[in-house]
Amino acid sequence: MSANLAREWIAKADADLDAVERCLAGTLPNVIVACYHCQQAAEKLVKALLVAAEVRYPRGKEGHDIALCAAFLPVDHPLREEAMAFDDLTDWATAFRYPAEDPATAEPVPDARDVSGRCEALKGFRARVGAFLTMR
Length: 136
Prior knowledge:
CATH topology: Four Helix Bundle (Hemerythrin (Met), subunit A)
Order of helices and strands: HHHHH
Low-confidence stretches: none
Number of strands: 0
Radius of gyration: 15 Å
Largest sheet: none
Distance between the termini: 13 Å
Number of helices: 5
Strand content: under 5%
CATH class: Mainly Alpha
CATH architecture: Up-down Bundle
Number of domains: 1
């Protein structure tokens, strides 16, 4: 069961990675929405690892915190540190999607090149997550 659920998490992460690329395509990239989908892809990839390890992950607001979720991976997990390195994306789920006066809003919004770079890093991580799960 956990292998199938882990694959479902990966498929959902793949959809988010596709959304990032679509948001960044063209002459008027939608960077704010691309940021959101980067965070979502990272979160889902970490949850795929947790499901495969049969570790319960936080739900609700805490479930969106990438470092918190990654910290639930076993200390000796080969992808734990890499998963934790995506913690900077946690705020991307909400930080740019609200008016500037909202205390949760972060400034400045990353530029399209920064978001594209994070997307490429996530695609590499996705490949390693997929390979890890295949080896199990």
